[in-house]
């Protein structure tokens, strides 16, 4: 080793300086210039990206707005839907006030129903005397033996 | 041309003026990055990134500090960023930065003297690399001789007295290690 070296501050600094005072590599300026060119050109070629993203975002917002709009309602259907009788009071309830208050905005009295808006059709009803009354023959034995169970 | 004139022209988009700034401060910025990273490859990347960042933000340079100090501050941050990156940490695990190829002092030296210089420098670099980080950074910046303590203090936000103490402590530890290896003092 350097046994003739005196390690005072100056000698030490000279040693350290010699070790750490390293210059930038050759061609560093060219390298930085090329990197700058590359960055500028890529920034230029990407110039369309931002407006395109803005247009896409606006289209997306418009689509969302359109989707959130309520669907157009058929006036006839709407009228029938509003003419719903109030729901019955739940069994065991002593007061119908809460239920009534819930349904109040949507209820209409029977007189408010437009008869013309209600579809009607006839139903054939069998006369009551034509139906054979159900009788039980107590003398007849049980064929399946169901009563044994 | 002064720094202020170059900055003014670069601010107006003059690439030639900015190239002149790079030419003027490339070594200073590189050595600063090397002081932080202790790795030549990382220092090159950090120095390049420093100039790219400086070019992008040249409009924000108000001239409160010198251009050199401004570049020092950017290089310091870039160096720290490179040092902390996961890729570089992994790379350091498989290599020994202090053993990197070293540029021996050239002109006017015999081949034998240059080899000896290179050997001594390598020894010092290894010892410097083993110093505590804050001591090593301060010593390398001070030993490179590019900045005064006041400039370093302004750029790094560390009091000048603290930096001086770190350099002094780094010298003391380094001197002890060199003596242990046979250097006399």
Structural overview:
With 149 residues, chain A is an all-alpha fold. Chain A has helices at 9-20, 28-45, 49-68, 75-82, 97-103. Chain B is an all-alpha fold and 185 residues long. Chain B contains 9 helices and no strands. Chain B is globular and about 55 Å long. The mean pLDDT of chain B is 84. At the A-B interface, α1 and α2 of A face α2, α3, α6, α7 and α9 of B.
Report the strand count of chain A.
0
What is the subunit arrangement here? Answer: heterodimer
Helix content of chain A: 40-55%
Helices of chain B, by number, come to 9
Please give the largest β-sheet of chain A. Answer: none
| CATH architecture group name of the domain at 1-95 in chain B | Orthogonal Bundle
Radius of gyration of chain B: 18 Å
Binned, the helix content of chain B reads over 70%
Q: What characteristic shape of chain B results from the CA principal axes? A: globular
Beta strand % of chain B: under 5%
**Low-confidence region ranges of chain B:** none
Low-confidence stretches of chain A: 1-5
List the SSEs and their pairings:
The complex is a heterodimer of chains A (149) and B (185).
Chain A: H1 9-20, H2 28-45, H3 49-68, H4 75-82, H5 97-103
Chain B: H1 3-11, H2 15-37, H3 40-56, H4 67-84, H5 86-93, H6 111-129, H7 133-144, H8 149-156, H9 160-180
Helix pairs in contact in B: 1-2, 2-3, 2-4, 2-7, 3-4, 4-8, 7-9, 8-9
